[in-house]
Amino acid sequence: TDFGLKLFSQLSQSLADKNLAMPYGAVSVIAMAQLGAAGKTLRALDSAMGYSLLARGMSRQQRLLQRDLSSEEGVETASAAMVERKMSLEKGYRRALVKAFQTHPHQVDFTKPEQAVNIINEWVSDHTAGAIPDFLASGSLTDETRLVLLNALSFQALWKVPFDPKQTAERMFHCANGSVVPVHMMTLTNYFHYGEFVTTEGIDYSVIEVPYDGDTLSMLLASPIESDVPLDKVIADLSSKRIHQWRQELRRVKRQLSMPRFTFNSEVDFKSALLKMGLGDVFNMATADFTRITTDEQLCVSKIMQKIKIEVNEHGTKASAASAAVMFSRMAVEEIALDRPFLFLIQHKPTGDTFVLREVLNP
């Protein structure tokens, strides 16, 4: 979706260390939260995402997307909602989760946070073929946690035409910060779908498609044609319309492709990127409205995070991702501690007259 691409672009701008992200998983857990949003919070999510799963026919589209992805050989995706066992969910939200994500809520005792962490980690491990066994760190949940919305994606595919390991050689890779590092560069001479494009800012870049076995999945590689142009210029131009244009205009040509063999482990916190995209209300206890989830207590999102592992080599690609939106309720009475300088005044309420006004700097 465009929302996923915009989220990735925003993330790329805000992170000094460019992390890997899988937009599908992050968008899925945000969409699960959207199903439970109301009022201003729902309007903000609808505006940022560009669509609403609450709109007619959209839940069916989400369900079919998840089904189509899971039907691909080597691809598994699953969603889950871990709910505090004493919190009653709105029936409409239960139905919406089933309709859009084909998942029923799992009851968890968040008064035992470490036990809840273990339950969630076990679910993630089971749905990523064991690639992400420790998704949530110890201490990442508290007894104020009420709901954890989850998505897991596992992907394993062989290249349609594998790279010959004998052709892999050490070469230098020119990093964005100007440094140079040695990498194992894979090389394949073959017919590829290839094209050259121009961003709205006039930056020339190339796109080459490397298909996986079966031809329904492929990797698209984009890079600026001029070596001194930052990749951010291309990322800023990403949209579903632009990628559709790539697909339409790529042409089959013979090329020698050299690309590094690589492995990435990445952990991403989406909060700062989402704040910049106008979703501050979602994270604010005073303004968040998730009354479609429950009317028992006020809920807001504390974090939206993702862990990813990906390996690309001569044979193909292995990737796993787990995403979560953690929601909590602050039931405990919030302390206001006047343990630093403060001002006090005594006022006659009927007249509004203030007759004592004082700073307390050192009691």
UniProtKB/TrEMBL annotation:
Self-association and partners: Forms a heterodimer with TMPRSS7. Interacts with VTN. Binds LRP1B; binding is followed by internalization and degradation. Interacts with PPP1CB. In complex with PLAU/uPA, interacts with PLAUR/uPAR. Interacts with SORL1 and LRP1, either alone or in complex with PLAU; these interactions are abolished in the presence of LRPAP1/RAP. The ternary complex composed of PLAUR-PLAU-PAI1 also interacts with SORL1. Interacts with PLAT/tPA. Also interacts with SORL1, when complexed to PLAT/tPA.
A GO molecular-function descriptor: serine-type endopeptidase inhibitor activity
Xref: Pfam families: Serpin
PROSITE patterns: SERPIN
Residue ranges constituting the Serpin domain according to the UniProt record: 5-363
Family: Belongs to the serpin family.
Annotated protein name in UniProt: Plasminogen activator inhibitor 1
GO cellular component: extracellular space
A GO BP entry: negative regulation of plasminogen activation
